[in-house]
Amino acid sequence: MEENHASALESIANGDHDVFAAYNSNSTSTNNDHGWQKVTYQKRQRKNKAAESVNNHNRLVPGAVISGGDNVFRGVEKEAEERGRRRQEAQRAAAAANAGPIGVVPARSKHRSDDEYGDDSDDEAAPQDAKAEEEKKSKPKKPKKPKVTVAEAAAKIDVNDLSAWLIELPNFEEDIQVMKFADFFVTAFKTVSSAQFPWIKMFKESTLAKIADIPISHISEDVYKTSIDWISQRSVRSLATFVLTSVDSILADLASQRVGGKGAKKGVQQASSKSQSQVAVFTVVAMILRRKPDVLINILPTLRETSKYQGQDNLPVIVWMIVQASQGDVAVGLYAWARNVLPLVCGKSSNPQSRDLVLQLVERILSMPKARTILVNGAVRKGERLVPPSALEILMGVTFPAPSARVKSTERFEAVYPTLKDVALAGSQGSKAMKQVSQQILSFAVKAAGEASTPELSNEAAGIFIWCLTQSAECFRQWDKVYEGNLRASVVVLKKLSDQWKEHAARISPLDPMRETLKTFRHKNEKALEGEAESPEQERLVKDADKYCKTLLGKLSRGSGCKKSVAFIILALAVGAAAVVSPNTESLDWNKLTVFFSSENPFL
């Protein structure tokens, strides 16, 4: 108690009139609050009332403190007693709370929070949080949508609904009609989620045989027939516009999946806002290309020349489109394969996956019923060859590579090469078109025939070179122009002609261009041998070429002599018969007969 008095006196002496005022007011209020004491946070009160303490200091005078000294001491004493009492009550309350059930936390006093911290936001937020939690728990969960497969959605398509829909379309322009036609299938497949049609995963992981009929295999026969009958009446232009737009949509979806799925699990297709419509897009595009394959021919240049359609990732989509067109016309399928797909096997993007897909496509095309007969007989389509010379050159390179460059796909190319070669060389012998083709083929065949490191390619190219000679006499003149620059290839061709003369002689007609060409070669050889050879190898090649030229000229001379002898015998018999029938043999013009037999090739 004496310590409390001393503390109070010291505070007054130091000018701490706030303490005096607090003690005085507390002693007065003790009798008015019936034993309840308001607890204040002294530090906060001191901070908030700093300016007020100065004013109190100015109001208090020393005389007031001296005259009221007894009351001050009494207030300090009562305050100390009150603090002790409150401390004991707080200890008892804490003990009682600890004695309660385990895990039950007593709620804080609203008044204590307000007074101690000066902020009741926590107490107000607690009921609100509890209320929000209760509302969240009581909120009913949305029912899960039933999973609908492509087959289930396709089975629900009513052909009568489709027919009724198509009746309304003539009111629109043709381009809009095609879009409206597609909208019908968008609505039909709107309940199919991307999980039920993971086309990106299927195209990436499945073989071509498995994805060829997706998703059109689920369309009923009645719906399919009604659809293609309507498609057949639309122009190629409007259908091509729709197909190209659809391809853009498909590839855009593919690109978004590729970007958005980097952090996703491998092989899992991400949800797409377009996933419901993609089933319809694939369905309609498949029906259009199967019914009107010319639509694909129309857009092939765009697909080939525009960069956004290129790349390994986009190749399965392009291949799938060619498969659809092949179902309608196998010739269109091979035409598209030779121009848009085959070149990929020798480009910078060539890899085992792309080569496999290229081979799967051509193997499927050639395996179709009567494919070889159809393709060989229809090797030229609207003035264009199904397998152009440029495609044949690529085929020769991948089918007959160097021994060290053989890969797993080489054997598969060897299997399809004979049929593709027949299609590339098919046509009417001696026709204007074949003359042009033969000259184009000879230009790369002569280079391939001179490849010493690839004997198989050299031999195959030599055979094709000789085929060119049988198609046009111009090819002999073309050979003469490139003879000296391709001496190795010329030796290979001359040797093959000499060894297989009986096989090739019947197909080379007339023989005069060949005879003149061989004579020119001999003249060039003699000139080369007279001068200084560039190398021993060059000299050897010149001698070999000259040797085969002599051999072939001899065979041409013997062949011509035999033909003349046979012709003379036949003519002599004819003259004898005429003399028997008519004794006036003077009417025969022997001079003309002499001139006739003096010609080198009277019957050619």
Brief characterization of the structure:
It contains 31 helices and 2 strands.
Q: Can you describe this structure?
A:
With 604 residues, the protein is mainly alpha-helical. It has 31 helices and two strands. α2 (17-29) crosses α6, α15 (236-260) crosses α17 (294-305) and α24 packs antiparallel against α25. It starts with a helix and ends in a 6-residue tail after the last helix.
Summarize the amount of helix as a percent range. over 70%
Number of helices: 31
- Kindly report the average pLDDT value: 79
Structural class: mainly alpha
The major sheet is characterized as: 2 strands, antiparallel
Q: Report the portion of residues in β strands.
A: under 5%
Architecture blueprint of SSEs:
Elements lengths: L1 H12 L3 H13 L12 H7 L1 H10 L2 H6 L1 H30 L11 H8 L3 H18 L11 H6 L3 H9 L6 H15 L10 H7 L2 H4 L9 H11 L4 H25 L14 H17 L2 H12 L9 H14 L1 H12 L10 H15 L4 H7 L2 E2 L2 E2 L3 H11 L8 H18 L6 H18 L5 H17 L2 H9 L4 H13 L1 H5 L6 H19 L5 H46 L8 H9 L6
Antiparallel strand pairs: 1-2
List keywords for this structure.
mainly alpha; 604 residues; single chain; two-stranded antiparallel sheet; 31 helices
